[in-house]
């Protein structure tokens, strides 16, 4: 429609509005699609006129336009269906089910089945709501679906009673119920159940500024009556506006269309399975004692290295222990990294009081960072990239007075640090030291914090030394609850490992200790555990494990409880020597328990499984333990956190890169070697290390994607979906295929697995995701692909235009960047899906803003086509690689003109991928694997093909936790390497995953690409030259790919480091300049 016609429509709308022709106004709004009248839409929603709501909305978007429109229409039709059931009008409900809801069965068949089953319930409201009660009573009085129902326990175990929230603490109700809640019944206003923890969590979505999924009228920055919307737009800016991009303008414009959960994410209450257990499951046997040398104040096991223990001490020292070999891997004495950046108040006290005791140490959920809080002002963060690398990352002058607790959290999917202190505040920081939130409300020093997430709501529990417990959302709107902990003094709160049960433990001022479980639905105590005998002079500590046990250190012993029984289960004094109030910590598996001793040591207790794990732990290579790579620390003080500069990543022009110190995992420099001490209680000799060889199909688990084999269409690119439920392959012919795993009894998680065959997924329309290949020579084209963070959209190209596909409908939403030059690599900015880095055939890199369809900048410097791109949010850089072995690192907007190639080798694709710490960089070329420190572009490790793996490397990728590297080779072999040392730990031969007919065929078949599962560290997928895609995992009994090789003889696979160096001189790098 022309601009003149649009203006005419606007004038007509204005006239009709002024003349009060209301029906005509809304009819023209709908038919033209020019104005979305939010006020009118609200009125119809409040009135429950769902047919009119859907009719009006259909003028602006259709059901299958995109993911968000589908969710909105689903909510409208679901509401109609639930109201029909509530009225007992089953005929109408069946009509809605068949005519309106059937369309959604294609995308979530399980959900449709669940909805259909509601028709069979005699009393819908009773059966549906009552099953959610944690303490259901018989014959409850439930009259309607739309009133929140909970049963109060009848055994009188509730003390204190339900808490009445102050009016100011209750979040404001939204104008109408959120359209995004796919729970069993819609959330009600906060006032409906102000004293229930579940109530404030349900309503949190309406008020939290970081819960990016709420439909509210008030979030729109437009005139109150009308919103300008293009009718079913096809131009790039409007189309791409549907993507969940973290852009301020976009956030405001899209809040009205962003529900809280996708259809695929619906969950229903399940009955907790009672697993069998015995006392032998508890780690009660003393394995050995570690001698720390200073009083231990805090302990924490690594989340995935189950024998790696982080220890904080009274003298301010941080120590990393490998319990399996009883060795200190490293120790960080107390030191203020940058005194001048601290506040003057702190500088004055530091001079006379240092060193400061550690109050808490903790690991991040993925184990890539650890944090320490101190008794005065400071927190320290360390980046952990392996046992050889605990590096100073960040120092923050966080609180006035002591910092009493530190924890990691993921608000808005961003890893952050939460702290609390004597200044009565809770603060949230990002990993650059910028303060994101400052929570005020406690009237006493804050003692502990407990960040958690329930469904899509993220929050923090906090406790203060006056016994007050509060809960906070990430929105600076005050606490949501305010109630008293037993004992009214120091209390710590913890969730069970599965996040379903909440416990607290603490001590009152009179010395009485309490261990309780909370009923979140009622905001009250569910059960109080008994067994504390003596009054304590300090505060008792506790931990949970295996979703079944509680442990408390009290009376110079460890006391255990079954979570479901208030009576004490058993105790142990750990062979004596414990302090009156020992500190304790389970490892993630629950088979080890670290306990502090009275003589400044740590006892490691284990069950039978833990004992076996300790005996089989491999000693880390000597150089990995003794040669840490130190990096400059970032220092941030409290008052200046808003102006943090990015990390410097400068390499001096005159400074050549030092020769790679580690080649094929062997230190080529002369250095003394130590053999690690053996465990005293191990009588059997340790077997010589052998490379794990997987050569038979029975030695691993493998599944081939159905309908994937096509000898004329090799797999060019391969991705897991970010949710881990599917695999996306781009073929050399430009066609993309998607496979999804279904949640069922064989695969209850619904995640990708080699144990279950997935479905080749296509929409009902039968559309294929086919790229533009008009005029393209497919033999010369370089396919490329990138997936949005929410798995809703995929961008790809195969020598032609870049296409944006809707992952639900497979429709092409838009195309851009027509050749020449052709696009050869795509990478989304990790923090903004609007920003796309596009590597081009002509060696340039375009920084493209998708939302406004504009190239923001063009980066130059390479000589050949771009083959790899990787963003680092920590270093604030983009690293690129080109056809020759050359890579550059550049700022987000420009490249330094002085940057030149940092290495040369035979022609071939070079790929780059960042380690989870966002500093180390994996560089893959057919001739080598290399690890770089990207902050200085120095190569620190290198591996070249040799021995069992001599063929050229076709692809390599980090595992999801960056502890392994999966590399594929052109002869069909797959190598699994230790990511810290680049030592080969397992070889998967082609005979393990290829059929005999393929092995005997005349055409060589081998993996072209490899991809790592985003959550399972030992699962990977390969795309082969015959078009097939396979997912491969270790057997369930092995659970991992071999073990790390020792370094006690300076050899690897029978070859010395020097011989490897001599045979690969061509791969040594040139100088790096910047």
From TrEMBL:
<dbReference type="Pfam" id="PF00400">
    <property type="entry name" value="WD40"/>
</dbReference>
<feature type="domain" description="CTLH">
    <location>
        <begin position="34"/>
        <end position="92"/>
    </location>
</feature>
<dbReference type="InterPro" id="IPR027728">
    <property type="entry name" value="Topless_fam"/>
</dbReference>
<dbReference type="Pfam" id="PF17814">
    <property type="entry name" value="LisH_TPL"/>
</dbReference>
<dbReference type="InterPro" id="IPR054080">
    <property type="entry name" value="TPR1-like_2nd"/>
</dbReference>
<dbReference type="InterPro" id="IPR001680">
    <property type="entry name" value="WD40_rpt"/>
</dbReference>
<keyword id="KW-0677">Repeat</keyword>
<dbReference type="InterPro" id="IPR006595">
    <property type="entry name" value="CTLH_C"/>
</dbReference>
<feature type="repeat" description="WD">
    <location>
        <begin position="540"/>
        <end position="571"/>
    </location>
</feature>
<dbReference type="InterPro" id="IPR036322">
    <property type="entry name" value="WD40_repeat_dom_sf"/>
</dbReference>
<dbReference type="InterPro" id="IPR054532">
    <property type="entry name" value="TPL_SMU1_LisH-like"/>
</dbReference>
<feature type="region of interest" description="Disordered">
    <location>
        <begin position="1035"/>
        <end position="1074"/>
    </location>
</feature>
<feature type="compositionally biased region" description="Polar residues">
    <location>
        <begin position="1055"/>
        <end position="1074"/>
    </location>
</feature>
<dbReference type="Pfam" id="PF21889">
    <property type="entry name" value="TPR1-like_2nd"/>
</dbReference>
<dbReference type="InterPro" id="IPR015943">
    <property type="entry name" value="WD40/YVTN_repeat-like_dom_sf"/>
</dbReference>
<protein>
    <recommendedName>
        <fullName>CTLH domain-containing protein</fullName>
    </recommendedName>
</protein>
<keyword id="KW-0853">WD repeat</keyword>
<dbReference type="InterPro" id="IPR019775">
    <property type="entry name" value="WD40_repeat_CS"/>
</dbReference>
<feature type="repeat" description="WD">
    <location>
        <begin position="396"/>
        <end position="431"/>
    </location>
</feature>
<dbReference type="InterPro" id="IPR006594">
    <property type="entry name" value="LisH"/>
</dbReference>
């Amino acid at each position: 429609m022309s601009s003149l016609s649009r203006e005419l429509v606007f004038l007509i709308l204005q006239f009709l509005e002024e003349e009060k022709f209301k029906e005509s106004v809304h009819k023209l709004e709908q038919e033209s699609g020019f104005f979305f009248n939010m006020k009118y839409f609200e009125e119809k929603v409040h009135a429950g006129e769902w047919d009119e709501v859907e009719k009006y909305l259909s003028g602006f978007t259709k059901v299958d336009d995109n993911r968000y429109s589908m969710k909105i229409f689903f909510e409208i039709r679901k509401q109609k269906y639930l109201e029909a059931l509530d009225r007992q009008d089953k005929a109408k409900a069946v009509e809605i089910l068949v005519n309106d809801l059937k369309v959604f069965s294609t995308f979530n068949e399980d959900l449709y089945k669940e909805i259909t089953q509601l028709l069979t319930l005699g009393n819908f409201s009773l059966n549906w709501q009552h099953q959610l009660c944690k303490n259901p009573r018989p014959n409850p009085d439930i009259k309607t679906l739309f009133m929140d129902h909970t049963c109060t326990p009848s055994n009188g175990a509730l003390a204190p009673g339900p808490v009445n929230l102050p009016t100011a603490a209750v979040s404001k109700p939204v104008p109408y119920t959120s359209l995004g809640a796919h729970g069993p019944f819609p959330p009600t206003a906060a006032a409906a159940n102000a004293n229930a923890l579940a109530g404030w969590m349900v309503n949190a979505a309406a008020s939290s500024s970081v819960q990016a999924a709420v439909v509210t009228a008030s979030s729109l920055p437009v005139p109150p009556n009308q919103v300008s919307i293009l009718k079913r737009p096809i131009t790039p800016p409007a189309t791409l506006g549907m993507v969940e991009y973290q852009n301020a303008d976009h956030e405001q414009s899209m809040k009205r269309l962003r529900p809280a959960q996708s259809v695929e994410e619906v969950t229903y209450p399940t009955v907790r399975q009672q697993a069998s257990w015995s006392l032998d499951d508890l780690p009660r046997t003393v394995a050995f004692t570690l001698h720390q040398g200073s009083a231990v104040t805090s302990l924490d096991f690594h989340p995935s290295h189950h024998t790696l223990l982080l220890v904080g001490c009274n003298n301010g020292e941080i120590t990393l222990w490998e319990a399996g070999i009883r060795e200190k891997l490293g120790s960080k004495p107390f030191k203020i990294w940058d005194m001048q950046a601290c506040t003057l108040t702190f500088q004055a006290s530091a001079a006379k009081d240092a060193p400061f005791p550690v109050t808490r140490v903790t690991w991040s959920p993925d184990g890539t960072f650890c944090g320490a809080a101190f008794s005065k002002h400071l927190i320290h963060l360390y980046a952990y990239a392996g046992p050889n690398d605990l590096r100073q990352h960040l120092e923050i002058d966080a609180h006035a007075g002591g910092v009493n607790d530190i924890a990691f959290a993921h608000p808005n999917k961003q890893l952050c640090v939460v702290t609390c202190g004597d200044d009565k505040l809770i603060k949230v920081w990002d990993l650059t030291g910028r303060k994101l939130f400052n929570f005020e409300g406690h009237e006493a020093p804050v003692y502990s914090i407990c960040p958690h997430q329930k469904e899509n709501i993220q929050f923090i529990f906090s406790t203060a030394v006056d016994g007050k417990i509060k809960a906070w959302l990430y929105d600076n709107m005050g606490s949501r609850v305010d109630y008293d902990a037993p004992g009214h003094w120091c209390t710590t709160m913890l969730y069970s490992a599965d996040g379903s049960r909440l416990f607290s433990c603490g001590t009152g001022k009179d010395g009485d200790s309490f261990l309780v479980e909370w009923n979140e639905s009622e905001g009250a105590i569910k059960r109080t555990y008994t067994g504390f005998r003596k009054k304590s002079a300090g505060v008792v500590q506790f931990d949970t494990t295996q979703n079944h046990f509680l442990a408390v250190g009290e009376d110079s012993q460890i006391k255990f409880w079954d979570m479901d029984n208030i009576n004490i289960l058993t105790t142990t004094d750990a062979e004596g020597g414990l302090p009156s109030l020992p500190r304790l910590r389970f490892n993630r598996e629950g088979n080890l328990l670290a306990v502090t001793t009275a003589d400044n040591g740590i006892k490691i207790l284990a069950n039978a499984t833990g004992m076996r794990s300790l005996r089989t732990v491999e000693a880390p290579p000597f150089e990995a333990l003794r040669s840490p790579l130190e990096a400059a620390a970032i220092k941030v003080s409290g008052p200046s956190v808003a102006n943090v500069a990015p990390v410097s990543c400068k390499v001096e022009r005159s400074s050549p890169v030092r020769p790679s110190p580690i080649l094929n995992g062997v230190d080529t420099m002369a250095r003394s070697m130590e053999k690690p001490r053996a465990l005293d209680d191990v009588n059997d000799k340790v077997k010589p290390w052998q490379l794990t060889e997987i050569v038979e199909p029975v030695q691993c688990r493998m599944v081939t994607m159905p309908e994937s084999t096509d000898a004329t269409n090799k797999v060019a690119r391969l991705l897991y979906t970010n949710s881990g439920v599917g695999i996306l392959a781009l073929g050399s012919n430009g066609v993309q295929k998607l496979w999804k795993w279904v949640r069922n009894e064989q695969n209850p998680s619904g995640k990708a697995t080699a144990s279950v065959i997935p479905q080749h997924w296509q929409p009902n329309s039968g559309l294929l995701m086919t790229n533009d290949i008009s005029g393209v020579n497919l033999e010369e084209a370089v396919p490329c692909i990138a997936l949005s963070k929410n798995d809703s959209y995929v961008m790809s190209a195969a020598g032609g235009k870049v296409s944006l596909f809707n992952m639900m409908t497979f429709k092409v939403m838009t195309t851009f960047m027509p050749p020449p030059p052709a696009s050869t690599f795509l990478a989304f900015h990790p923090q903004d899906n609007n920003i796309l880095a596009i590597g081009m055939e002509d060696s340039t890199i375009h920084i493209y803003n998708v939302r406004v369809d504009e190239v923001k900048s063009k980066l130059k410097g390479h000589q050949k086509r771009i083959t790899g791109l990787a963003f680092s949010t920590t270093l604030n850089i983009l690293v690129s690689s080109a056809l020759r072995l050359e890579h550059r690192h550049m700022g987000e907007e420009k490249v330094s003109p002085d940057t030149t190639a940092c290495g040369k080798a035979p022609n071939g694709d070079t790929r780059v991928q960042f380690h989870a710490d966002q500093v180390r960089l994996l560089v893959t070329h057919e001739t080598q694997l290399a690890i770089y420190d990207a902050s200085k572009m120095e190569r620190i490790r290198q591996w070249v093909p040799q021995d069992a793996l001599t063929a050229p490397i076709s692809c390599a990728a980090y595992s999801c936790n960056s502890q392994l590297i999966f590399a594929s080779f052109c002869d069909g072999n797959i190598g699994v390497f230790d990511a810290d040392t680049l030592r080969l730990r397992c070889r998967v031969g082609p005979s393990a995953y290829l059929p005999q007919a393929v092995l005997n065929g005349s055409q060589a078949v081998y993996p072209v690409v490899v991809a790592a599962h985003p959550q399972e560290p030992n699962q990977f997928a390969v795309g082969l030259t015959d078009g097939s895609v396979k997912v491969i995992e270790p057997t369930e009994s092995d659970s991992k790919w071999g073990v790390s090789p020792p370094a006690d003889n300076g050899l690897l696979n029978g070859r010395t480091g020097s011989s490897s160096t001599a045979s690969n001189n061509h791969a040594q790098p040139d100088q790096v300049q910047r």
